[in-house]
Amino acid sequence: MFQALANPQRFMAFSRWAAPVLAVIAAGLLGWGLWLSFSAPEDYQQGATVRLMFIHVPAAYMAMFCYACLGAASLVGLVFRHVLADAAARACAPLGAGFTALALITGMLWGRPMWGTWWVWDARVTSVLVLFLFYIGYMALQAAIDDETRAARASGILALVGLINLPIIKFSVDWWNTLHQPASVFRKGGPSLPPEFLWPLGVMALAYMALFGALWLVRIRAEVWRKRAQSLALQAAG
Amino acid sequence: MSMTSLDYGKYAIFIWPALAVTAAVLAWMVADSLLRARYWQKKVQVLEAARAQPGEKPAP
Question: Cβ separation of B36 and A228 shorter than 8 Å?
Answer without folding.
Answer: no
